[in-house]
Design brief:
The complex is a heterodimer.
Chain A lengths: L1 H9 L11 E5 L3 E5 L1 E7 L3 E6 L2 E16 L2 E14 L2
Antiparallel strand pairs in A: 1-2, 2-6, 3-4, 4-5, 5-6
Chain B lengths: L2 E7 L3 H10 L4 E8 L2 E7 L3 H7 L6 E4 L4 H11 L1 H18 L4 E5 L6 H10 L10 H12 L4 E9 L2 E8 L11 E2 L4 E10 L1 E2 L6 E2 L4 E4 L8 E14 L2 H14 L3 E10 L2 E14 L2
Parallel strand pairs in B: 5-7
Antiparallel strand pairs in B: 1-3, 1-4, 2-3, 6-7, 8-12, 9-11, 9-13, 10-12, 13-15, 14-15
Helix pairs in contact in B: 5-6
Classes of the chains: A mainly beta, B alpha+beta.
Chain lengths: 87, 282
């Protein structure tokens, strides 16, 4: 996603896959996650995304995975929290 | 992008998702409506592949009904004839509604019918022509200018133009005098819009009997009545006797209700029942 590239450029960091998960959350609408290795347990209240350095536990309401391909996940719904869990 | 939706059921359906990911199949609208069930969409080109992946597994998979714009267009295309027909019908209805296919002149001034039609035509409103609101207003003004017309309205009901024309009850064209019974019989119904009723329904009346008279200080009666008549005639020929009765009924403009011919004392007896409708200024 171009947005991530620009953000990473601002942060003076590399936005490649080797750098762990990247995500952006749009309040009340959903979020976009990059560099997702796998999809764990999921329901309409919680989605577990497996990333390089652990897991991302996304909690919310009416969650739905609108797109899941090549490490990109588009989550639709109201995201209330994104918590990182170490392996 | 054409998508097909699947529903997959089994223990730990997340593993099925992992399997699809391993096969590099992109997933869309992934949901978990129940603990052991997931629904998802894949591109149409992966349809067979998905079935192959889960053909010998512990998952039950089925293809759900198509959805979205593609499904809508597919439904429309599969019923193209019906869709085109419906669109044509609607278009025809809208098109015909813009036209006048019939003109009705109603109200107490309906005797102006021919005049009204010619006035409408002069203003461009006629059967088979498009209806114009401006022309209707102009025509209304001209109809209102006719003698004794006190109310006029043009109303378009679909393709029928209804012109209601009402004249003043005290119009010079209204006939003065009472409403009288044209023949002897029983009063079947009585409607009085203006005037005093002198008889009641079910009452026997003689021919010429005054049924409704003008109210005090007025000359005009607006009323109508129906008289039920029973007549009989005897003769050597039953049909001839009945014909005489029918002639009388026809002369009075009556509606024949029943007829009977019976043998009686070496001859025949014919009976006829009919109803006469009389109106005064309505």
């Amino acid at each position: 996603m171009r947005l991530f590239e620009e953000i990473m450029a601002q942060l003076d960091a590399d936005g490649g896959e080797g750098r762990g998960a990247l995500y952006v959350v749009a309040e009340g609408r959903g979020g976009y996650f990059e560099n997702v290795k796998d999809l764990g347990a999921f329901s309409s209240q919680e989605v577990c995304l497996i990333v390089k350095k652990g897991k991302l536990r996304v909690c919310g309401k009416n969650l739905r995975v609108d797109k899941y391909r090549e490490g990109d996940v588009l989550l639709h719904g109201e995201i209330l929290s994104v918590a990182r869990e170490e392996n | 992008m054409r998508l097909v939706r699947f529903e997959l059921e089994g223990i730990s359906p997340e593993n099925a998702v992992k399997r699809l990911k391993r096969e590099k199949i992109e997933l869309f609208y992934l949901q978990k409506p129940r603990k052991n069930r997931v629904s998802f969409c894949v591109e149409r080109k992966y349809r067979k592949k998905v079935f192959t992946i889960f053909s010998r597994s512990c998952y039950n998979i089925l293809e759900a009904k198509p959805f979205g714009l593609y499904a809508f267009f597919r439904a429309v295309l599969s019923r193209a004839g019906v869709f085109v027909g419906a669109v044509l019908f609607l278009a025809l209805c809208l098109f015909s509604d813009c036209f006048v296919l019939r003109i009705k002149v109603e109200g107490t001034g309906n005797y102006y019918g021919e005049t009204v039609l010619s006035l409408l035509e002069e203003n461009g409103i006629a059967v088979g022509r498009a209806y114009k609101a401006d022309a209707a207003e102009e025509a209304t003004a001209r109809i209102l200018a006719l003698p004794d017309v006190e109310f006029c309205t043009l109303k378009k009901e679909g393709s029928v133009l209804c012109v209601e024309v009402r004249v003043s009850p005290s119009s010079s064209l209204a006939a003065a005098g009472s409403l009288c019974a044209p023949a002897a019989g029983k009063v079947y119904s009585l409607t009085v819009l203006r005037g005093n009723a002198l008889v009641s329904e079910g009452e026997e009346v003689e021919a010429g009997r005054e049924l409704v008279s003008a109210a005090e200080g007025e000359k005009i009666v607006l009323a109508g009545a129906q008289i039920l008549c029973s007549r009989s005639a005897q003769g050597a020929d039953g049909d001839a006797a009945l014909s005489l009765l029918l002639l009388e009924a026809e002369r009075l403009g009556a509606e024949v209700l029943s007829s009977r011919v019976e043998e009686e004392g070496g001859g025949f007896r014919a009976e006829l029942e009919y109803r006469i409708t009389v109106r005064k200024n309505i």
